[in-house]
Amino acid sequence: MKFYCIAVVMIFTTGTGVAAAGSTNSSAAGIQLPVLGTSKFGASRFGIDSSSGFTISAVVIGGNGSITCQSPVNLGGSSICNITRDGGYSLASFTDNQSDRLSAVSSNSYVITNITADHIVTGAFSSSPLPGVCGSSNNGKFTTPPNSNLCTSGTASTVTGTGPWSWTCAGLNSGAASLCSANTDYKIKMLGASTTHPTLQDAYNKATEGETIFAQAKTFVENFYCNKKIRARLFGGKDSNYAATTGFTTIRGTMIIRDGRVDISGFTLK
């Protein structure tokens, strides 16, 4: 921005009479006033030179984000300031020429209109609570514990369980955590029942005297513990409809019978 003054030059000569302002009439004797210059904006004695445009500067205090503004801007023009925050941070304060303008920020941008002077916008970012969000593995079905796409936001804990599995997505900056889970892709079904069970252990725990349990011809990673005073029959190697026998059901773990009686067919233990 350039400021300048137009000097008034007064020349005294002999004689009488005064030339009119803005005139260089040499016939007038006495005081002669040269033609006064005019500024770009029509000011006769003082003007502002905006030939290089007005500067819009941006300052970020403490980092954790950035602010960029369109600059320079012509007289009466507009400038858009784009505000970008780092992950886990939000805009805590925002001023324009030391005037609070935080409420004027919309959709991460700030607009200055009808610009007639330089502007300095200043912003500061602070950490904000962000809740944990489960990833696409949540409510999924797997043959082994899921190890990817656990959280879309936050930090995933260790996956626990033998199917179903569970984990949490911890929030950032004291944000709330989310509980996530996934199930096995294989089911166990009891004779005559419409519901299915994700594990052999779950089916056995719900079994009553004389119960028949069907398992698909898949591999189940679990430790199977039988300690109920009942007789139960387990038939493995079934198809997806629990009807035809197509192979064997594999238990990858241990099987312990402490009490009762368990008749087993179509199973292998690894």
Protein model, in words:
The chain is mostly beta strands and 270 residues long. 3% of the residues lie in helices and 42% in strands. The protein is built from 1 helix and 27 strands. The strands form 9 sheets. It has a 5-stranded mixed sheet with strand order 19-18-20-23-26. β18 and β19 form a beta hairpin.
Essential attributes:
5-stranded mixed beta sheet, disordered N terminus, 42% strand, 270 residues, 4-stranded mixed beta sheet
Mean pLDDT: 82
Distance between the termini: 83 Å
Gyration radius, rounded: 41 Å
Strand line-up in the sheet with most strands: 19-18-20-23-26
- Please state roughly what percent of the residues sit in beta strands, choosing from under 5%, 5-15%, 15-25%, 25-35%, 35-45% or over 45%: 35-45%
What's the number of extended β-strand segments? 27
Topology of this structure?
Layout: E1 2-5, E2 11-12, E3 31-32, E4 46-49, E5 56-61, E6 65-69, E7 79-85, E8 89-96, E9 99-100, E10 109-112, E11 119-127, E12 133-134, E13 141-142, E14 151-153, E15 155-156, E16 165-170, E17 178-184, E18 188-190, E19 196-197, H1 200-206, E20 211-216, E21 219-220, E22 224-226, E23 231-238, E24 249-251, E25 255-257, E26 261-265, E27 267-269
Parallel strand pairs: 5-11, 13-17, 20-23, 21-24, 22-25, 23-26, 24-27
Antiparallel strand pairs: 1-4, 2-3, 6-7, 7-10, 8-9, 8-11, 12-14, 15-16, 16-17, 18-19, 18-20
How would you summarize this macromolecular structure in one to three sentences?
The protein has 270 residues and is mainly β. The chain has one helix spanning 200-206, and strands spanning 2-5, 11-12, 31-32, 46-49, 56-61, 65-69, 79-85, 89-96, 99-100, 109-112, 119-127, 133-134, 141-142, 151-153, 155-156, 165-170, 178-184, 188-190, 196-197, 211-216, 219-220, 224-226, 231-238, 249-251, 255-257, 261-265, 267-269.
